[in-house]
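Checklist before submission:
- one chain only
- standard amino acids only
- sequence pasted in full

Submission:
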Amino acid sequence: MPAPRPLWTPRGHTSTRRQLLGGLAAIGGGAALGGCSTAPDVGSGGGPSRPKASAGGGGGAKDSSDFAWWDQFNPLAKQEKAIFSAFHSDGGPKIDYTVYNPNDQGKALQLAHSSHQMPDVFSLAGVSVPPAQLVDQGWFAPIGTSDTIKKAFEKGALIEGVHIFDDQLYSFPIFGVRQYTTIPWFNKDLAKTAGVDPENPPTTWDDLRKAGQRLKKAGSYGLTLPLTFAPRMESFVTELALVAGFPGDNTHPGLDLTTGEYRFHDDAFLQAVDFLHSFKIDKTLFPASTSLDARSGRARWIANGSGWFFDGSWNVGVVVGDFASFLPKLGVGPIPTPNGETPVLTSAPTGGTFWISKDSQHVDEASELLTKFVGDDFWKGMAKSMDQPPYDETVVADSAAKDPYKKAVDYYKKQVFVGPSVEANPGVSDVEGVMKDVTPGLGEIVQGVFSGQVKDVKSALTKLSDSTTAARDAAIRSVAGKKGGTKVSADAWAFPHWTKGTDYRE
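Returned file contents:
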């Protein structure tokens, strides 16, 4: 997920975000953003359960000196445990550490919040509420070591309304902004069977489709998709639409950043859906895709289920940790484009990764611990762990990371540009905090195309554009109508001076 890109997750429920936080519905979906790793089901039974092992030592009952940390970053687990153990050895509290499946963490946070059992530090996987709204609702405590943390970032990297609220630092990014989820990873042996040179993998949609057709003739399949994971399908279609020319980013699906309009029905989105669906039409889609999420899809792909599998850079970290024997077969290429053009994608500035609970009894200790999650040593360790690229992506080239990971990050650096921060505009987070979700969302529509329930894709996407626009208009009126409410218009979502393929400078 990921996030994950914590500032935004795909829409897919009819209740408002406030109702979600009030306990009237369970939070679903993964982080957008971009891009979370698919972690194992440790402590993810749906509630705020205890992890199988504490980072500070063996099991046993939790005491008042412990504090809890929840996130979904499976490839980073070893590095985080080392940080937690060192912190405890230096006199800090023992960390009760849980790695969640990103599909489940939002639900666990919902239950923990409603029962006043929030972890002390957590990421926001599965939470679709803008952090600004959560700040207003009292979820977080500001970081007490903000001066130390700020020194690790260049000017402008920590943004008011994204990381800073009322001049206080609440969170910071640990991941790089230049990344995408739709990397075509492939099995080198099966690629050769399809007549593909692993050093020169397909770069066009048509070439990848033809490779799948050749594999089918050889008795295998072309592509495995996590069709049960709607947010991931939304990410794939959004990023494929970006390389087809859509002027948006991979954090706000369907939003045209030049006009502020929702245009899910743009030809670029239609082409992206058609491309993915072509594998179903060709019968080169791994048949079990209809029952797979990202984690199970990866496992089936690795077991020779198909030649190709879309995933983010964290795929390497998971392969090394869970499927090490497959690493010599792991190949990677750039996101394919309609006609082989150089890919051009846009990513919004990275949001905060970790947040301290306002109810924590360990705010000072948590603030001190968070200082261990910035700086060259930490970012080099992240590169070695091979999850999302570290905030300072320049450390990857000379790191201990495996070559496929370095290659993926190199694609990111050349192909992804930094876009404007929509949430930094005054009033946007207020509106998004009360904006009703539209269903079916993009991911669900894609699922419907594959199941045959959605036959007129253009009509379905046009309806989604209209419904999302109407939901935003209603939320704008709602925010403005409240006593002391913020006056904001749809223009706050538009950046007419931004140019696709360039870094946006405010």
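Reviewer check: The chain has three domains: 17-178+352-421, 183-340, 423-484.
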